[in-house]
Amino acid sequence: MNVYIMNNRMELSKWQTGLLVTLRFLIGWHLLYEGIFKLLKPEWSSLGFLEGSQWIFAGIAHWITSNPGVLSAVDFVNTWGLICIGLGLILGLFTRTAAIAGTVLIGLYYLFNPPLIGLGTAGPMEGNYLIVNKNLIESVMLLLIAVSPTARLYGLDALFTKKNGH
Amino acid sequence: MSKEKDVDHKDNLGRRSMLKALAGIPVLGAFGFESFRKFSHAAQNDTRKQIIGELGLDDLLSSVKPVMKSDGDLIRVGMVGFGVRGRQLSKALGFMEKAEFEEELAEQKERGDDSLQSQIDHGNLNIAITGICDVFDLHAERGLDYAQHDIFSAGDIARKHPVKRYRTYHDMLADPDIDAIIIATPDHHHAQMTIDAISAGKHVYCEKAPIHREDEIQPLYNTVKNSGLIYQMGHQIPQNAVFQQAREIINRGLLGKISQVETTTNRNSRSLAWIRHVTNSGKTKPGDAQSIDWKQWLGKSPQVPFSIERFYSWARFFDYDTGLFGQLFSHEFDAINQLLHLGIPSMVSTTGGQYFYKEIGDMPDVLHTSFEYADRGTTLTYSANLTSSKIRPRTIYGRDASMTVGGDLSVTPDIKSERYADLLERGLVDSSRPMLEISEGADLSSPVDAVTSASVRYYASRGLTTTSIFGRMYDVTHLHLKEWLDCIRHGGKPSANIEMAIQEAVVLAMADISYREQCRTSWDSVNKQIIRV
Predict the structure, then answer these.
(1) What is the mean pLDDT of chain B?
(2) What CA–CA distance (Å, rounded) separates B286 from A94?
(3) What is the ipTM metric for this complex?
């Protein structure tokens, strides 16, 4: 696979390509399952998560939780967003859009509840974190996927991409 | 030749590229397959759901009455007796002393408890407390402070309907601007006050017990029965959502033939043994012959000189109540009677004694009474202990299953059950543990209980404190008062009505006599009399 980094054409090894594709599948599966789970559990709501928000987005979180209409909309967008992003990543369809949307969504999860000194957590968490937690890592990994066009070969985007030289 | 090669090459690339492009499809396929397995596995392995289905209890929650908003005209309530219980009743009605209210609200907000706020939002019963009567000036003053501040409009109700203090309850009954009376005095006044209040045309909410002595039973029943007024005994346990579901389970015969019912009350402290004339630090509580109308307080009981001990610790004296029977067993009996409709037993016998708290009053520390229901083939037992706080749940024993019901409910199948033989064999249920558990909304490990500890735990374990109905927490006393007020406004019979109260009165009298006179007692239903055996 060829990529262009800083105007230099670079060839990625089979391992690099293979791992990037695998990463795309794994993160896609993770987000798709999160979305499907929320879809099939009728009583799920982001209320609990939002109520625990304490940092810069606390005000917005409070506004969302005090407006039942807004809360329903947020829950809907969250659930279907996860499903669409997950599908997009696994199938390699509109991959860059899906990956960027994923970066933003998981990035928001991070910003609503970051593991900073002095802030409590919105519920029990596994692991111990300081500034860096799994949401932050996954958000940046999605950014990596966004800039790595693996789907042009290993994904349905290949059906829409013009091949070089043909 | 090269053209053919080119065409072949292009086709191969096309096919290879197509396969690469579809790389995500098998991944998605695996996802779909595994998720399907997970969700159907979860549905199958939900044994609780399965058991509920097998028992036909899918609609169990529909047996719980939803709490509707209070509407109708304002009811003006007079309170007779404003001691500890009077204060609790007043709070349940939404009337609390201003400073205490603000402090309580602030404290609750700090620990994330929204019970008081919930009462402000949903607990307005549309009443005004317009009369306070208490023989003790201090208690009467407190009653006035409470009545003047409601939690809904910060005292507006009292400004529109001012509260008066009455020196005697007769004065209160004579006032046409009082619609209903709440009686929270010592037991020896209950029957007479109820009779007088009903005769004066007032609705009555009377704290337990309904009577003190057997000669009050018939007059009480005759006065209230056809008065057309609403009478409610202070037994709030049936307002519990858990309790209502227990009743439904029993009505459907899920326990099989019931042979035995066990009720118990275990407590272990001086104040829970009703020694209440001294504080925890040993100081005698306030009150003297000047500030307490002793003659009125004594009523028809033996004329004795003023005694601060008798005034606060009255429950320990048979001159003023039926001891453990009237104070604790009455709640147990009402709960069981509401569930099983046992009524009046054929024989009662008691043993017990005053071995520990010997210096004050005549209340025994350990007491055991058996109530035989020969025609039902059932025995009800009461085991009471004032020197052990181990909580023993209320238990109902059936041939097919046993049930414990208090703040929580659990049903355990019997190993020899024919009804559940199939379920036992399939391994879906096990006789060593409950097959059904419904727990109360109130969490016994919550910060609220950390503040008040042992006594709250006791009351909560018997279902006497709060209940959760369709996601909202309610105080059961509040619901019980609401039921009374709803019946006053819209008609109907409350749950602890005169029929239930009079059955209880007979049972309490039979038990009381069996202990005090050391004999067995039975009931002559023809002449409506208690027989000493």
Answers:
(1) 89
(2) 81
(3) 0.84
